[in-house]
Amino acid sequence: MSDDAVAASAKGATFMVFVQVGSRAVTFALNQILLRFLSPQLLGVAVQLELYIISALYFSRESLRIATQRRSDGGVQAAINMSFLAIAAGLPIGALLAQIYLGTNYPDVPYLTTALRINELTVMVELLSEPGFVAVQQNMLYKTRGAAEATAVIMKTLTTAGLVLWGRHMDLDLGVLPFAAGELAYSASLTVVYLTQTAPVARLKEFTLLPKKIKPSTEYAFSLFSKPLLYLGASLYLQTGIKWLLTEGDKLLVSAFATLEDQGMYALSANYGGLIARMLFRPIEDSSRNLFAKLCAAPASEKANGKGEKRKSTNNIHQAANILRDLLRVYSIASLIAFAVGPTAAPLLLQLVAGSRWTDSGAGEVLATYCYCIPLLAINGVSEAFVAATASTKELQYQSVWMGAFSAGFAISAYVFLRVLEMGAKGLVLANCVNMALRIVFNLSFAKRFFGRNGVEFKLMDLLPNIYAVGMTAVVPSLLAQSQGLLGRYGLLGNLVRVGMIGGLFTAFL
User: Fold this and answer.
1) How far apart are CA 102 and CA 115, in angstroms?
2) Angle (CA) 368 373 378, round 5°
3) pLDDT at 301
4) What values do phi and psi take at 20, rounded to 5?
5) How far is CA 313 from CA 75, 136, 210, 296, 391, in A?
6) CA R_g for the chain
7) Which of 157, 180, 208, 489 is most exposed, with the fewest beta carbons within 10 Å of its own?
């Protein structure tokens, strides 16, 4: 059973990576066309509206999504029933956040209020996909998820780009309407694919995508909602709020302290810098969370005896430890490449794809700094997925306390970098690095304790690259700087070749 879960998870993660790469390649090409017509100010406002959607969805469904990945006696149906609580929460949360945004000193951009109302609708449309999403996760239907996300991303980009180009052709200033329409196209496509693709599976496996009574029991509220999952979701809610603050805190700080132009510059750098994270790391994180939950879950009979925590299958725990160790080891080696070559290569690539208009604005330097954050995002993502999949309710509450402390650390570091050292958007990236590093320390400490009490050795030193690779990482930036005159006279192309040659040799050495 565990071998099947590992194989399915690995296959699903691989498929999701390929789907993400393919769909992002299409959207990447279209976005480069868009950048020629957008100003940093307009992109900055679009980021604020995107933050609204992310926040409304996050507070409506995140804790429930994590809770429904745990095993329940009600099976898939119990998890689907729980997803309707997210739909019910979406309307008041979306309306409240919209009112808060309109109550602030929001920017004077054409059709901003209309775009915000469209985004309110977008939140509800996407939440309607939750029963389908839960069915996909519970049955490990990665092809369905890949198809849904790829279709949604492509439809979003086509809609946004189409409206921007049409407005340009008709000499109309549509403001942020194209971005709102693109988000609605994304959510509508996602919902349609999820629900249509999971409906046949529901009939075959005898569950329904609508709320259905499980059985009269003291373990279920109204015979619909599993009380253990409800308690877990409630205990997670505070933690998800803190996690949201840590995840989206950079956007909040940029909105509070930076001009719209600076916000657009930071958004561009974060989008390019996070491209690898969205294409590669996020599918691995999602599939590994589901896998860790299955491998480290106690059998139902053991739970009934109250001895599940002590009698988990040793083989499954060993598998989980090996998978986590291998993932973190690969990420640590990839980190060396990002640290050594990324800061030099990033501004050159930005100039190639976005033009000198954006590099002259300082976005190239911000993107170079972001290269230090990308590996930390990857390591934090998979280690945090392990914590979410294996921690008990008490341990999750303990994590929430530490997340609060990390929020304070993030805020202090952001203040130092932004206000004291006046580093602008680069300082915000460095504050994010501090945030990620603190979270990684907690996650790895938890993993070591978890495996230790289950009789499995998990050495943190095994995750680190060898000393020779670390030494080369320190030397490569100097080589790149000293070799600038070698091919630099050939302009951008010569510099790309130079960085590619040195980076390729370094990668081969690793």
Assistant:
1) 12
2) 135
3) 46
4) -65, -45
5) 21, 26, 34, 8, 16
6) 23
7) 489
Q: How confident is the model at residue 351 (pLDDT cuts 50, 70, 90)?
A: confident
Nearest by Cα to 412 from 397, 444, 434, 440 = 434
What b/e readout covers 90-128, taking b as 16+ CB neighbours within 10 angstroms?
beebbeebbeebeeeeeeebeebeebbebbbebbbbbbb
Q: Please name which of 153, 122, 132 lies closest in space to residue 54, comparing C-alpha atoms.
A: 122
At residue 164, φ and ψ (nearest 5 deg) are -65, -45
Query: How far apart, in whole angstroms, are the C-alpha atoms of residue 407 and residue 248?
Result: 11
What is the mean pLDDT of the segment spanning 191-219? 85
What's the sign of the alpha-carbon dihedral 152, 384, 136, 122? Answer: negative
What is the rounded CA–CA span in Å between residue 192 and residue 302? Answer: 39
Backbone angles phi, psi at 107, to 5 degrees: -70, 155
Lowest mean pLDDT across 308-317, 383-392, 438-447, 468-477: 308-317
Residue extents of the structural domains in the chain? 37-207+217-237
Q: What is the DSSP letter of 464?
A: S
DSSP class of 390? H
pTM of the complete model: 0.65
Q: Give the residue from 338, 350, 410 showing the smallest Cα distance to 374.
A: 338
Over residues 244-270, the mean pLDDT reads: 67
For residue 238, give both structure tokens: 């505070």
Contact criterion met (CB below 8 Å) for 287 and 16: yes
